[in-house]
Structure formats: C-alpha cells, structure tokens
Write a structure and sequence with these properties.
Organism: Apiosordaria backusii
Cofactor: FAD
InterPro entries: FAD-bd, FAD/NAD-bd_sf, FAD_mOase_fung
Distance between the termini: 40 Å
Structural class: alpha/beta
Family: Belongs to the paxM FAD-dependent monooxygenase family.
GO molecular function: FAD binding; monooxygenase activity
Length: 466
C-alpha cells in the first residue's frame, strides 16, 4: 500500500484537505461520525478573500458564489444609545473588496459549503459516514484508527479534523501520556475556555426587512446582534451574550429550554428601526444555544497524529475566521507534506511526520493566536456599553472605518497561504500576492484590534490578521 492519510471528520477542514490531497494523487480515507456528510446544523459561515482564493484553486468558488447570491451587503448599525445608522451606500464594502482582491465577503450555510466540497471530490467512495472514531494507536511505521462499529483503518498519518471536542486530539493526549512523554498534561483540556454564549440561527426574512442584501449589527449593554441576509429569502443571525467564564469540562451545555428562556428576555430589542429580535426569532428555521469556546492548543501533533481546524485552533465566531483558518491550515499541511514526500520518495518516517507537523504549527500558530486575541477584544468591546465602546462605535468608525477595514482586509489576504502547486486564479483582473506558507510579521496589533471592531460595526465582517 502506498502513502495514505486518514482524515477524521467531514468538516470544512477535513473536506478541504480531502480535495487538496486528491488534486495531488495522495491516497486518503475520510471518516465522518454523522450519517450524512453535510447535516443541517443551523449554522452559517463567513468566507473572506483568503479562504475563497484557496476554494477557487480547488474549483469550488464559482458554485459557492452562485449559492451565496447577492453578497453586496448594505450595513445597518444600532448604536449603544439606541440611534441607528443605515444610510445606503452607492457601492457596498463587499463590492469594493471584490474589486480590490477579486473576491467579496460571503456568508453561506455551513451545510452548503460542505456539500460543495463533497460534490467536488471525484473519489466519493473514500468518504465513509457513520464512522465515529473511538481509538487511535501509532504502531511502528503506521497508525491505526478504530471506529465505534468495530472497524479498523490503517494509514501513515491521521489528521484530526473533528472539531473542538476532537476525539483524535484526546487520543493524541492519551498516547502521549501513556508513552511517558512530557509534552501533554493530564488537565490539557482545561485550556479550552468560554466567557460568552450565543444563540445562532437561520430564519425566514420578516416582512419588516427590505428584500435586499443587509448586514445588521445592533449593540446593547451586555449583548450584541449580528444579522445577515441569506440565500432563499432568509437570515443568518447571532445573539451574543456574556456569561461567567468556565473552562474544560465545566463549560456548560445548554438545552432548548435554556435557549427559549434567553431569547424571550430580548424579544423587544429593536435591531433595526422596524424590526425586533422577537420578529426574527418568531421566523426561525434552525437555532441553537451554545457556549463560545476559545483556545489555541499549545501542541497540535504527536508522532503520526496531527490536528487541524477547530481541533487545533478554536476562535470566537465574531471573527468570521473559523472556516477560513481551517482552510488555511489544510493548505499549509498539504504544501509542507508534499515537500517532505518529494524528499522521502513518497514514504514518511515518524521523524519526517513530526517535522512536517511541527512546520505546519510554526507556520500557522501566530496567525491563529492573533485571531483568538482579536475575537476576545471584539467580544469585550461590542457587548459592554463603555466609554471606549461608544468612542469606537459612535465617532471613530463612521468617519474612518471603511478605509481602515479595506486596508486590513487586503493585507489579510496578501499574508495568507495558498496551495503552492496549483495555479492562482485571476478574478476581476486581480491576482493578489500571497505568503505561500511563510509566516509574515508586520507588528500591527493595535491596527488589527481597530480593524476587527471596525468590521463589526461598519461592514459587519471581522477580518483576522497575523
């Protein structure tokens, strides 16, 4: 048997990686726990130019763009003092971004993106559903993955793309501890933390909202809303609220009753001049109340096991960077793996695998950690009615926000990775520079904090920079 990658999880990162491996003829097997490869979980996903460029390299962009529909969102802002800023702009921020980078900002059902990625695969028989992983063992020169139904699968490396509660990551920790390695601690999971919660959902568009592409940000003391037009005359929406900080196994899990109680408290919140949160919730199609977990795990790999996406770097959804970061890490993994396979004649020793995985983490860690910090800053400044928040929302951003955000958005795309051995697309006459897999440091922490918040309140899209 030739070199094989076992991917655990049919997530954005897992299916993106499968598409990339297929492009280069690398054997893989993807194991998904759910019965369907693209279940409807009521979630939406923001895609930014850097992530869209990689999807374009894979041949997925045109379909994503078609499914997203009108993505030239017009902003509407409810300030902390209850006033509204909703003047229509002749050219939307998203349209300007497309003219500058070749790609707009796009929001789409997570289910839709998963389906596009799956449909793009030629060897769909390599994707197996109802395969919940329960054990991972590294044995000499290979790794064995066991699933709940009693099946076992063997490969050269295993990639955990199975989300923030990753079974692969837990097995990696177990393997490390049992081998006597000091790389992991028994309480490794306590690094995962949450100090806010969110009801996210998809709703039919209420009659009070115009049938145009909108992005609504509404700010109240202790909570905030982000609401976007969705294809099919629907809305994507988020209600963010503070909660007492919890870590690891102490992070709460919420019921539908918890969701209903929380939602009912805020039905009268006016998110636009003519629409309340109650109007949006009454038209709900899919909803869930979840804790917003955040953490960049200090080590993403051990022996022949590596984690990517939310399993390695989980950031606040207000950054719109979870899916983009997952796509980026998949690209960096493939770039690094191909270079090592060239040197090793299509064979990978355990030492080789460790070098590949360490390079992936070195390349991506700073950018992911920056995203984590930016999400925390944005959460703090957008959910508390403080003097600093009012200065940003009420005064600075209406005058300077668009220009700052545009500069940061372009910079973010230019410093992101691409799939190095695939052609770079040209969209709208633009082929952006890029970093490949080389980390770029620009020391822009202060500007980034400003840029994220500006994206929240002016254009409603949060860009993450490294």
């Amino acid at each position: 048997m030739g070199f094989r990658v076992i991917i655990v999880g049919g997530s954005v990162s897992g299916l993106s990686l499968a598409n990339m491996l297929e492009k280069f003829g690398i054997d893989y097997l993807l194991l998904e726990a759910h019965a369907e490869i693209a279940p409807q979980l009521g979630a939406s996903m923001g895609l930014l130019p850097g992530g869209l460029r990689i999807l374009d390299q894979l041949g997925c962009y045109d379909r994503v763009r078609e499914m997203a529909g009108d993505c030239y969102y017009q902003p509407s802002l409810r300030l902390f003092d209850g006033s509204f800023l909703d003047e229509r702009k002749p050219v939307s921020f998203s349209e300007q971004l497309e003219n500058r980078t070749g790609y707009p900002q796009i929001f789409i059902d997570r289910q839709m993106l998963l389906q596009v990625l799956f449909d793009n695969l030629k060897s769909k028989d390599r994707v197996l559903t109802r395969k919940r992983v329960v054990r991972v063992d590294v044995v000499d020169s290979f790794v064995q993955v066991q699933t709940q139904d009693g099946s076992a699968y063997v490969g050269d490396i295993v990639v955990g793309a199975d989300g923030v509660h990753s079974a692969v990551r837990k097995e990696m920790w177990r393997s490390g501890l049992e081998s006597g390695s000091e790389l992991f601690q028994p309480d490794e999971d306590q690094g995962l933390a949450s100090d806010s919660k969110c009801i996210f959902g998809i709703s039919k568009r209420p009659a009070s909202l115009p049938p145009t592409a909108l992005q609504i940000n509404a700010f109240f003391d202790g909570r905030s809303y982000m609401i976007l037009s969705a294809p099919g005359d629907r809305l994507y929406w988020f209600l963010f609220q503070d909660m007492e900080k919890a870590t690891g196994s102490c992070i709460p899990r919420f019921t539908k009753d918890d969701e209903a109680i929380l939602a009912h408290q805020y039905f009268s919140d006016r998110v636009t001049r003519n629409t309340t949160f109650g109007d949006i919730y009454a038209n709900r199609l899919h909803t869930a109340l979840v804790p917003l977990e955040e953490h960049i795990f200090p080590r993403w790999h051990f022996r022949r096991i590596v984690t990517i996406g939310d399993a390695a770097h989980k950031v606040h959804p207000n950054t719109a960077q979870g899916g983009n970061g997952a796509i980026e890490t998949s690209a960096v993994l493939v770039n690094t793996l191909l270079r090592k396979l060239d040197q090793s004649c299509s064979n990978l020793s355990e030492e080789d695998a460790d070098l590949v995985f360490a390079e992936v983490q070195r390349t991506r860690f700073a950018r992911a950690a920056s995203a984590l910090e930016q999400g925390r800053r944005t959460s703090s400044i957008s959910m508390r009615d403080t003097l600093l928040s009012r200065l940003f929302v009420h005064y600075l951003l209406p005058w300077f926000g668009d220009r700052i955000i545009m500069w940061l958005a372009v910079k973010h795309a230019e410093t992101g990775p691409v799939i190095e051995r695939l052609p770079l697309p040209n969209r709208h006459g633009v082929t952006l520079p890029h970093s490949g897999t080389v980390k770029k440091r620009d020391g822009g922490k202060i500007l980034w904090g400003l840029g994220v918040f500006g994206a929240v309140v002016v254009s409603g899209v949060l860009y993450l920079l490294a």
